[in-house]
Specification:
- This protein is α+β, with helices and mostly antiparallel strands.
- The protein has four domains: 90 residues, conserved putative lor/sdh protein from methanococcus maripaludis s2 fold (Beta Barrel); 98 residues, Elongation Factor Tu (Ef-tu), domain 3 (Beta Barrel); 55 residues, OB fold (Dihydrolipoamide Acetyltransferase, E2P); 62 residues, Helix hairpin bin (Helix Hairpins, Orthogonal Bundle).
- Helices cover 25% and strands 37% of the residues.
- It has a seven-stranded antiparallel β-sheet with strand order 14-13-17-3-12-16-15. The protein has a six-stranded antiparallel β-sheet with strand order 2-18-22-21-20-19.
- β20 and β21 form a beta hairpin.
- It is elongated.
- Belongs to the membrane fusion protein (MFP) (TC 8.A.1) family.
- One of its GO terms (cellular component) is efflux pump complex.
- One of its GO terms (molecular function) is efflux transmembrane transporter activity.
């Protein structure tokens, strides 16, 4: 019986070893594929960027003290002047505190003046006069603080502009520093466009950005407008992974409101930007990811395949324009993409250019 068990064990090990050798042979066997070598980049002098009008110098404003809102004097869309009262808190208690502090200050002032006369007549000491002086100074400081608290119950516009949003209503409680409304400067138009990292890298930092003004068109308006560079972000947006650039111009006669769609037309040469649009590759070299808009290519290096994510600018009958992820002279797999794995050995049957 022991000999039978031993024979069965040997037979099992033999079968497993044979399977492992077969799998190892299968894994080490190269996959025959066709390849594509990335050519020189596609260039384009004129480019259009989609953008949107955003509020210029948008500023949230809030009360400096906590209280119940007595009145909101403006609504979204209203034009305001600098210093204009836009909201106020219920202030009966604060006014009473101001009146009390004023009375105390008035009393302390009279006592100090009376004390000066008495000191001149040597009827009170210098120390007693100093105490009266200190009482007057303290009462004056309390009175000033009370008046400031009363002023803080009034909310005024910080500049000439327009109300964008109003967050609070009458009788609601507002905490100190809690935004009550947003205002922006409606005499300016700001347009925000999103730029990929490769486009931003083309911008020459030594270029005078004030020397070139791209033209911009807006939905609903037939005219085009010249805009100037304002600023751009140094960190990509967390959601879109793109950088934001802002352009500005004075508000035209026909007011352009925030949220209006815009198209910014740029002459890349005049702007001093290298006009690389991307690299053209066949659609058959692209592998779709699990998420919408996500694509990969397989780059062949030293006879092995490596999966790399890419950004697609556009797809046409001539192929796809890849704006990031590959470079000139990269060799891409152009067949059997679904059989590839990272590190898989491959052999090129043909290589297109």
């Amino acid at each position: 019986m022991n000999r039978s068990l031993y024979s069965l064990l040997v037979l099992t090990l033999f079968i497993l070893t044979g399977c492992q050798e077969e799998n190892t042979t299968e894994q080490s066997k190269p996959l025959y594929i066709s390849g594509f070598t990335v050519n020189a980049p596609v260039t384009q002098q004129f480019r259009s960027f989609k953008g949107q009008v955003v509020p210029a110098e948008q500023t949230p404003i809030a009360f400096r003290v906590t209280g119940e809102i007595e009145e909101v004097l403006v609504k979204a869309g209203d034009v305001v002047k600098q210093g204009q009262l836009v909201a106020k808190l219920e202030d009966s208690k604060v006014k009473q505190a101001v009146n009390d502090a004023k009375a105390q200050y008035s009393l302390a002032s009279k006592q100090y003046l009376r004390g000066k006369e008495l000191n001149r007549r040597a009827m009170i000491s210098k120390a007693e006069l100093d105490e009266l002086f200190a009482n007057r100074e303290l009462a004056q400081a309390t009175y000033r603080a009370a008046k400031n608290q009363l002023a803080y119950t009034h909310l005024v516009a910080p500049f000439n502009g327009k109300v964008l949003d109003v967050y609070k209503e009458q009788f609601e409680r507002a905490a100190a520093g809690e935004p009550i409304m947003n205002v922006y400067q409606n005499d300016k138009v700001y347009v925000r466009i999103d730029l990929s990292d490769n486009v931003l890298a083309m911008i020459n930092p030594e270029t005078n950005r004030d020397s070139y003004h791209p033209t911009t068109t807006f939905v609903g308006l037939s005219d085009s407008y010249s805009m100037k560079y304002l600023e751009h972000t140094s960190e990509p947006n967390a959601q879109t992974q793109t950088y934001e650039m802002y352009l500005s111009m004075p508000q035209p006669n026909v007011e352009i409101l925030p949220g209006t769609s815009a198209t910014v037309n740029v002459d890349m040469v005049e702007a001093g930007i290298t006009s690389i649009d991307g690299y053209q590759v066949p659609v058959t070299a692209l592998q779709a990811g699990q998420k919408s808009g996500l694509f990969y290519v397989w780059i062949i290096r030293d006879g092995q395949a490596t999966k790399v994510p890419v950004t697609i600018r556009k797809i046409s009958g001539e192929g796809a324009i890849v704006s990031s992820g590959i470079k000139q002279s990269d060799v891409l797999a152009n067949s059997n993409l679904r059989k590839l794995r990272d590190g898989k050995k491959v052999m090129l049957m043909e290589n297109q250019h």
